[in-house]
Amino acid sequence: MKILVPIKPVPNPDEKVKIKGDGSGIVLDNIKMVVNPFCEIAVEEALRIREKLTGEVVIVTVGPKETEQQVRTSLAMGADRAVLVEAGTDLDSLAVAKVLAKVVADEKAEIVLMGKQSVDDDNNQVGQILAAVLGWPQATFASKIEFSADNKKANVTREVDGGLETIEVSLPAVVTVDLRLNEPRYASLPGIMKAKKKEMKVVPLASLGVDTAPRVKVLSYAAPKLRAGGGRVADVAELVSKLKNEAKVL
Amino acid sequence: MADILVVVEHQEGVFKKNTLSVVTAAKALAGLTGGEVDALVLGDGAAAVADVAAGTGVRKVLLGEGAAFAKYLAATTAVAVAQVVKAGEYGAVFASASTFGKDFMPRMSGLLDAPLASDIVGLEKDGDALRVKRPMYAGNAIGTVEMVGAPLLFTVRQTAFDAAAMGGAAAPVEKVAVTAEAGGTAFVSMQETKSERPELTEARVIVSAGRGIKAQENFKLVEELADQLNAAIGASRASVDAGWAPNDWQVGQTGKIVAPELYIALGISGAIQHLAGMKDSKVIVAINKDEEAPIFQVADYGLVADLFKAVPELIAELKKLKSA
């Protein structure tokens, strides 16, 4: 099965971001860029599918040349090769999805696996838009993917409000992955060595002829209201008394 | 401006209250740009849902029915909503930023080549221009966003907009013709998380447990405490990953966003991703034996203690209060 996995670099999600003084963006100096955690889950699932069904895992990213580093990280996990569409970091979800649709068509992918959201913009849009642009079925928030015997369909279990829903999608389809699908492997040392030599095709954005004019523009960033936390109580009796008499929530 | 459409969420014929915040957000836009707010209900035998929606202060309710809508599917919903938007020349569409709105609204954005602002927390005007506020980076930044094109699509963070009142004067319900093919998608099954407790996103009190609870059987303690407070039960990612709690209990950046009057965090360290889902709660209580845990930085009342000692004490105190 030919599996396409779009990935995106994000600032290390375990560090709290700081906003630039003029509100024009996020301070990225000294912040480590990593592969978006949901993208890693998608890469892992692609590798597991390839291990079972054979095929090829192609990593795709849309971004500046520096994104090569995160692409190599995904290749080091075991993906076969990569396509980097060289572009700025200012593309919105619609633009990224349209670019990905071109690559998907070019590569004749049979399934696209990708993270349900990137933890920087928190949009949760690109997979669904891509499915619409391609006219393919979509299955979002996947916690389990099972292929039919002829590999023409997949049953996807989705993490939804209220429980777990299973839907059947015919392939090709776009599946976006959620946290419980798998636990991504670490790249091995030989994997990292091999990744350096794997093919990474660089495609200039302009060559794809896609309209990437933004429909959604982030004009400025501000810090949220800070919470005045840090209050302490000595014991349960004091806690109950404060909740009753001070906070008045009991 | 053109009129505004709210897509009503329901669970197989039962109106979901998260739609009430969506109505409020849609009315906020109407207040800024003009236009009337209508509601759309898609389903098969969903007249009861339309009747509830009719009492939320909308101009009218459009009811689109057919066997294709008996079970929610993104493919059919996106196509049908797009039909209604075109026929009614709607200028904006709103849905909840639940797993319902997050699933079909981006698909519609792709179908209509229209801008979508996800998970919005505010709408305002800068001169004549509409500005949208939405959280980014796990809620550590609030972006001000401009949208270009039409129709404008929004998913709404429920905790950021008050619930519209229910049971008001009944707006007319009109049937609309919608057709949709499932396009290679079919519903197979739903494994529902059954609970007698209030829904997480609607509860006044939430008791939430993390890694410190150590095992699934210890959730009994959490339940006992929740019983005393008529609370919903939440969980951190660690609890859900460990299999101690179902997925739809997860509170956080990529799980449920909650803002109850009282949030009690038991054995939760307070990772950025968890805080993103609960830091707008009115009162936060944290019980954790690690005094360095980041959860204490957002807690109004932090208790450094072993939860297995403190929670039974708390349950006893609450029982005393009740009988007093």
Write a concise keyword list for the protein shown above.
heterodimer; A: 250 residues; alpha/beta; nine-stranded mixed sheet; 6 helices; 27% helix; 29% strand; B: alpha/beta; seven-stranded parallel sheet; five-stranded parallel sheet; 29% helix; 28% strand
List the total number of helices of chain A.
Answer: 6
The total count of strands of chain B amounts to: 18
Oligomer: heterodimer
What class do helices, strands and sheet pairing of chain A give?
A: alpha/beta
Report on this model:
- The complex is a heterodimer of chains A (250) and B (324).
- Chain A contains six helices and twelve strands.
- Chain A has 250 residues and is an alpha/beta fold.
- In chain A, helix 3 packs across helix 4.
- The mean pLDDT of chain A is 97.
- By secondary structure, chain B is an alpha/beta fold.
- Helices cover 29% and strands 28% of the residues of chain B.
- Chain B has nine helices and 18 strands.
- Chain B has helices at 18-33, 47-54, 74-88, 101-112, 219-229, 237-241, 272-278, 295-298, 307-323, and strands at 4-7, 10-11, 14-15, 37-43, 61-65, 92-96, 116-120, 122-126, 129-136, 141-147, 152-156, 173-176, 185-192, 205-209, 232-235, 262-266, 283-288, 301-304.
- In chain B, helix 3 packs across helix 4 (101-112) and helix 5 (219-229) runs parallel beside helix 9 (307-323).
- The model of chain B has no long low-confidence stretch (mean pLDDT 97).
- Chains A and B meet through helix 3, helix 4, strand 7, strand 8 and strand 9 of A and helix 3, helix 4, strand 7, strand 9 and strand 10 of B.
- Strand 9 of chain A pairs antiparallel with strand 13 (185-192) of chain B.
